[in-house]
Structures are given as C-alpha cells and as structure tokens.
C-alpha cells in the first residue's frame, strides 16, 4: 500500500475526513475531529491501536511506538509498505472503530455512526 492507498482506505470509513494540522506533507485522518491515522512527510504511517495490540506489535518488533503518540497507544511503521495491504487496512479499520467508540453518543449520532 502507498500513501494514496491509505487515504482511500481511511476516507472509505464512515465519517472520516482528511486534515493537514501539521503541514501539507502530513495527512491526518480523523473521525469526529479526532485523529485515527497519520501519514508523515517521510512516508511512515502511525495509527491508534488497542492496549493489547500495542503490546503485541511493539514487543514483537512488528511496529514501533509512534513518536509523540506512544503514551496514547499509537504505533508507527517507518514505511507504509512494511505490512501487507490487507493487514494494514484491518488495522486502519480498527483504529477508526477505537476512536468512534470514544466519541460521545451525540457526536456519533451527528456523524450517522
């Protein structure tokens, strides 16, 4: 998968939007105003994971703690194509679901989620 592929997967999810809060070279995908995936300027991708997935992925070396976001259980892949497309798409969908689950009922209703 490449940067555009990540964008296609993210924007296909309900209520997902693209923002550039850190500059035009960083793509931040959000739902309800909260980020669930970010693609960096150098081609890496970071995304939200569950507590258990964070431990498994970082301890196995399959992903590394995301810079500045590790305390919130985000992982980073230095290159988007480090994983198979289907595996990355599954994690993107999970990241979206985790963030949707943290939204208020009102916010979810406004987004039709």
UniProtKB/TrEMBL annotation:
It holds the Pfam family YjbR. Keywords: DNA-binding. It comes from the Bacteria. InterPro entries: YjbR, YjbR-like_sf, YjbR/MT2646/Rv2570-like. GO terms for molecular function: DNA binding. PANTHER family: CYTOPLASMIC PROTEIN, CYTOPLASMIC PROTEIN-RELATED. This is Putative DNA-binding protein (MmcQ/YjbR family). It comes from Brevundimonas bullata.
């Amino acid at each position: 998968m490449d940067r555009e592929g990540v964008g296609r997967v993210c924007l296909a999810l309900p209520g997902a939007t693209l923002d550039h809060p850190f500059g035009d070279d960083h793509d931040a995908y959000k739902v309800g105003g909260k980020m669930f995936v970010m693609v960096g300027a150098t081609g890496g991708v970071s995304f939200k994971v569950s507590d258990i997935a964070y431990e498994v992925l970082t301890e196995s070396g399959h992903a590394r703690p995301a810079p500045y976001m590790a305390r919130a259980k985000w992982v980073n892949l230095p290159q988007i194509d480090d994983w198979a497309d289907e595996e990355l798409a599954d994690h993107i969908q999970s990241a979206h679901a985790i963030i949707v689950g943290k939204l208020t009922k009102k916010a979810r209703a406004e987004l039709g989620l």
